[in-house]
Specification:
By secondary structure, this protein is of the alpha+beta class. About 25% of the residues lie in helices and about 30% in strands. It has 4 domains: about 325 residues, no CATH class; about 100 residues, no CATH class; about 180 residues, von Willebrand factor, type A domain (Rossmann fold, 3-Layer(aba) Sandwich); about 55 residues. This is VWFA domain-containing protein.
């Protein structure tokens, strides 16, 4: 999908050379990247961008100055994507703890389509680390659009009358959505918001926002003013001094308080910025520190229990000893792992083995339908053993066969059952789904409750979209482990190395918060607190009832097996939106629990939280509402759930039309794709749009007739009719079929164009 998008942009840039720019222009016509950068990836968006979707190349022209070029016959299949010129851009980022909320607002002009024509436009929004889209608002010449989160049950009712458009995720954390029928020469004003994580390294937090615009989005007119604006607000949540480190743009400090900073960048520019916006800061602590933030919910909150957030930061200087490690790598080598997934896994594990201490021990289990062991027991990580392990992987990591996860996991837990004086890890890598996933969770849960002082941690890594990421998250959660994923195969090695680095730098294990036992009711996400690593802060959230004390105590075990204890001061926070900061973490963990327990109440809880916060979930769906400018609904744009008593079809009768992009959730795995050994990234073949419409229309027609008729009645009636009546009935059905075909053809040719 990403490659096709890149090729379409390349075609669009070539097609845009038809546009006559006039004599008074600031830049030359858009040029594709140099010969060295002509891969499809070079044309993917590196900042929020809007593209004109061109199927008919004959409509491409300057809407202000016609070029009168020869007409172009034929159609673009797939449609070409011409990047629109950008007239204004503003970025606002609010950073709290390890999460940032980013808002982008800008305007783009459809400069490449005749004024008498219209085309669809596609918005593409690349987001930062673990980005999650929150909402989009669009103002076009005649229409208003805004996104709305609805429960998945409501989509079933609304989808019958709604339009299905291209949209979804182009790549991980790159969101796209289609805006239908925008007039040539008109201007689109767009606001888009998302949340993303801050990066953490050596005691510094870093915010990186994709904000690098290519030259060809700069307007050609010299006199057009171009203003860039960036506003940044930082609230570390710790109530301690913040030390600024680096920034990509010349920020002016507006305010400074203890634990809070405010900056502004505003400039008139000739060309748009071509570097991402980055900002890094450090909290002035060299040792392990933490605290608790407590907040009362708003009256609109679906959960009226108090909210809390516990944070532990490893500090800037790591003098503490890390744990001695025993790690078993459990690697899927089924047929679907062939190529880059398996090669990236081998490279990441090889790099991790070279970083192990000589007192650490390891083993490797490769599995498909069978299991293959590097050694029958754990091996010390000497240089010679590591070299033999790398050679063994080169010889045995050969993709083939099916997927069986339970057997190698049992073997790994058996190997680690006698661990003493170390922290045992099982590192599971897979790209497939299996039928007995809930059974695997039950088995692992029973195996991990006993054992030594520190039970084995299962750290899971999913590759692609065919594996059940919620199963992998659940495995990690029940064992205090960590989970990560690479949805695209080109990021397997880098993301896996990052996860391996995190588990290799564990400095505190078996963390518990004493005060939780004294509360009337408490719910913690995750329920079993993971270990603290020197590479990442630890943040857990939850809900509670009862009197929260002024100070709580966090306890655990250091790497030298001595006891850890730290007093955490409780602060009542009013200026940090804890509900929004913790929303994605809670939704992800609750979804895994809902999948595992098959609990409908948990599913409804996730849906309500998703609708309230705008964060995507498996039990909600994002839709784009279209409203005529002269027929605006009184309610403000936002996210809400339709009333249970209301008829969803009647809600749309207020002059609004609904557009559904593709499902944005990760899903619960694909057993069929796993059985067929489909490689990650392989997309199912889709019917052409016209065929989809015809099939949908035919199925709706047949279902309507079947709803009105009883099968037995039809059989009895047909048995009694004479030849003359049968002929008349046949002619009537033929006439109705002709009307149905005419309706389908008119929808295909003119659907959604409002008569244009």
């Amino acid at each position: 999908m990403a490659e096709e998008f890149g090729r379409s942009v390349e075609d669009g840039l070539k097609l845009s050379r038809r546009i006559y720019l006039g004599k008074d222009r600031a830049v030359t016509p858009p040029k594709p990247p140099s010969h060295m950068d002509k891969s499809p990836a070079a044309f993917l968006p590196t900042a929020p961008m809007v593209y004109a979707v061109i199927s008919d190349p004959g409509i491409v022209d300057n809407p202000d100055i016609p070029s009168y070029q020869p007409h172009v016959y034929g159609r673009c299949d797939p449609p070409a994507l011409i990047p629109l010129q950008m007239n204004r851009i503003e970025l606002e980022a609010d950073s709290y703890l390890d999460t940032a909320f980013v808002k982008i607002s800008g305007s783009w002009r459809v400069h490449c389509v005749m004024g008498s024509k219209s085309c669809d436009c596609r918005l593409a929004v690349p987001m930062g680390e673990q980005g999650s889209i929150l909402g989009v608002e669009i103002e076009a010449s005649r229409k208003l659009y805004y996104t709305e989160m609805i429960a998945i049950e409501d989509r079933k009712y609304l989808e019958k009358e709604a339009r299905l458009e291209n949209g979804g995720f182009l790549k991980p954390h790159t969101f796209t959505i289609t805006i239908p029928k925008v007039d040539g020469g008109s201007t689109l004003s767009i606001k888009v918001s998302w949340m993303q994580k801050l990066l953490y390294h050596n005691g510094e937090f870093s915010l990186i926002v994709p904000f690098s615009f290519p030259d060809y989005v700069t307007p050609h007119v010299k006199k057009l003013p171009r203003k860039e604006k960036i506003q940044l607000n930082v609230n570390s949540g710790t109530g301690t001094e913040i030390v600024c480190k680096t920034t990509s743009h010349l920020l002016k400090e507006l305010r400074r308080e203890v634990g809070k900073l405010g900056f502004l960048y505003e400039s008139e520019v000739l060309t748009w910025t071509n570097i991402d916006f980055t900002f890094s800061y450090a909290v002035s602590f060299s040792h392990i520190f933490g605290g608790v933030l407590l907040q009362t919910p708003s009256v609109h909150d679906v959960d009226q229990r108090d909210m809390f957030c516990v944070y532990l930061f490893p500090g800037g200087h790591h003098s503490r000893k890390v744990f001695r490690k025993e790690i078993v790598f459990v690697v899927d080598i089924s047929g679907s792992m062939e190529g880059e997934p398996l090669e990236g896994t081998k490279n990441a594990i090889s790099a991790a083995l070279t970083k192990l201490d000589s007192l650490d021990s390891f083993n490797i289990i490769a599995f498909n339908g069978e299991t293959y062991l590097f050694s029958s027991s754990m091996e010390l990580a000497s240089e010679d053993t590591v070299e033999r392990a790398v050679e063994w992987m080169s010889m045995n990591f050969i993709a083939g066969g099916d997927t069986n996860i339970l057997v190698p996991l049992k073997q790994a837990t058996e190997m680690l059952s006698k661990s003493r004086g170390s922290i045992p890890f099982i590192f599971l890598v897979t790209d497939g789904a299996v039928e007995d996933e809930r059974h695997i969770c039950d088995i692992m849960k029973s195996h991990l409750t006993g054992g030594g002082l520190i039970c084995p941690r299962i750290c899971t890594f999913g590759i692609g979209s065919y594996c059940n990421h919620h199963f992998l998250r659940m495995l990690a959660m029940i064992s205090r482990g960590h989970y990560d994923a690479a949805y695209y195969i080109d990021s397997v090695e880098s993301r896996m190395q990052k996860l391996l680095s995190r588990i290799s730098s564990t400095i505190i294990a078996n963390i518990t918060i004493k005060a939780f036992d004294d509360l009337d009711e408490v719910e913690v996400y995750p329920s079993r607190i993971p270990d603290l690593s020197s590479d990442n802060p630890l943040i857990v959230s939850g809900r509670c009832q009862g009197n929260f004390p002024d100070t709580v105590v966090a306890i655990g075990i250091f790497g030298d097996l001595s006891n850890f204890s730290l007093d955490l001061k409780v602060q009542k926070s009013k200026d940090i939106p804890l509900h929004s900061v913790s929303a994605k973490q809670q939704i992800d963990l609750l979804t895994a629990q809902a999948w595992f327990s098959e609990n409908k109440q948990l599913e409804e809880k996730v849906a309500k939280l998703s609708i309230q916060t705008g964060v995507i979930s498996e039990y909600t769906s994002m839709s784009l509402l279209e409203t005529d400018r002269g027929n605006q609904v009184a309610e403000s744009p936002g996210v809400h759930k339709l009333s249970q008593q209301a008829n969803p079809q009647k809600v749309e009768s207020q002059g609004r039309r609904r557009i559904f992009p593709r499902n944005l959730g990760a899903g619960f795995g694909d057993l069929t794709a796993t059985a067929e050994n489909l490689r990650p990234g392989a997309e199912e073949s889709r019917l052409p749009e016209a065929a989809e419409i015809i099939i949908k229309a035919a199925s709706n027609c047949c279902s309507s007739m079947c709803n009105q008729c009883c099968c037995m009645c039809c059989v009895q009636s047909c048995a009694k009719m004479n030849n003359e009546f049968a002929i008349v009935l046949t002619q009537l059905c033929t006439a109705l079929a002709c009307f149905g075909c005419f309706e389908c053809c008119s929808y295909i040719c003119c659907g959604g164009q409002d008569g244009h």
